[in-house]
Design brief:
Elements: H1 2-19, H2 29-34, E1 56-60, E2 68-73, H3 84-97, E3 105-110, E4 115-117, H4 122-126, H5 130-148, E5 154-158, E6 161-163, H6 165-171, E7 175-179, E8 183-185, H7 199-207, H8 209-218, E9 222-223, H9 224-230, E10 235-237, H10 245-257, H11 262-275, H12 280-294, H13 298-309
Parallel strand pairs: 2-3, 3-5, 4-6, 5-7, 6-8, 7-10
Antiparallel strand pairs: 1-2, 8-9
Length: 318
């Protein structure tokens, strides 16, 4: 009973999201500019679509892809390295997304061919005072934690190198898709530091403790195909001529999620994420509490009615 009470307290913020359908805060100029434009391919944007200085491009897809949001990292001059400005822009975007119940899936990708994210911006880091480094790493860690706790599914599309903090960002996503030629690794020990944005915690939870230690101790860089064999990524594909094979596969996965009940998916994600951190008994109580959230929804009744009438359901997230 105590575990169930704890679970219900945990679910209170999610319950409020279910009851209130809130729009995205679109004060950010990037969100405004790209709200109604559709992404054909993550790396195929006309130069007029990308503003100078926009380190993050946020795209809300429309039509049949409505509900999919694409976050495109766009720092070609720095191999998408994680800078102060990128952390700020991503934090603002995630804050908007987590309040928007109309968002079904978030795809994180790169706007720069051949690179996902090279990790921390070491040139910027070199200019920091020693007293600034710790607070910046804390902000980056908080950002990646926020990415990991978004209520809707998240997919990382790794079409190029994902190193250090770049891989930590991908590890915070629910699903990872990579080109077989993409390179990835937690390479911080080469710089006499350790992964500082969740890598020491999320990598062992993904590939196992012993394998994670080997990879981190050796600062080993894996190909997408090797990462697939270790379970680090869900899918590894041959790269295409456009350089966006992982993005296109991620988009296909997102399209598989869209027809399903959005509240049910959010509750399933919460049950899984919270459940794996506790013992089985507590995990089952979490599942029970999450299941209780879907029982009074209109979507559940719509699912039953659609089954009875032998038609596709029309879920509204209510």
């Amino acid at each position: 009973m105590a575990a169930l009470v704890k679970c219900r307290a945990l679910l209170q913020p999610v319950r409020s999201q279910i009851n209130v359908i809130s729009g995205v805060c679109r004060s950010d100029s990037v969100l405004h500019a790209f709200l109604t434009k559709r992404v054909p391919h993550c790396v195929r944007l006309a130069s007029s679509d990308v503003k100078s200085g926009d380190d993050l491009i946020v795209r809300y897809l429309d039509g049949d892809d409505s509900g999919i949001v694409v976050l495109g990292i766009n720092r070609p001059q720095s191999k998408n390295a994680i800078s102060k400005n990128l952390v700020t822009m991503m934090s603002e975007a995630l804050e908007s997304l987590k309040k928007d119940n109309k968002v079904r899936t978030v795809v994180l990708c790169s706007m720069v061919p051949g690179i996902f994210c090279a990790g921390a911006d070491l040139k910027e880091r070199a200019k920091m005072q020693q007293s600034e480094v710790g607070p910046f790493v804390t902000k980056a860690r908080t950002l990646i934690t926020e990415l990991g706790t978004l209520p809707m599914p998240t997919i990382a599309a790794i079409d190029g190198a994902a190193l250090g903090g770049g891989l930590e960002m991908a590890l915070a996503c629910d699903i990872r898709v990579a080109a077989s030629s993409a390179k990835m690794g937690l390479v911080e020990t080469k710089l006499a530091i350790i992964p500082g944005a969740g890598g020491t915690q999320r990598l062992p939870r993904t590939v196992g403790v012993s394998v994670a230690k080997e990879l981190i101790f050796a600062a080993r860089v894996l190909s997408g195909a090797e990462a697939k064999s270790l379970g680090l990524v869900n899918h590894a594909l041959e790269q295409n001529e456009s350089g966006d094979a992982a993005y296109l596969r991620a988009l296909d996965l997102a399209r598989e999620f869209i027809p399903q009940g959005p509240i049910a998916i959010r509750m399933a994600k919460l049950a899984i994420n919270q459940g794996i951190e506790v013992d089985l008994k507590t995990g089952l109580a979490i599942e029970e509490a999450c299941y209780a959230q879907v029982i009074p929804t209109k979507d559940r009744l719509e699912g039953l009615q659609a089954f009875k009438e032998k038609r596709p359901p029309r879920f509204k997230g209510e």
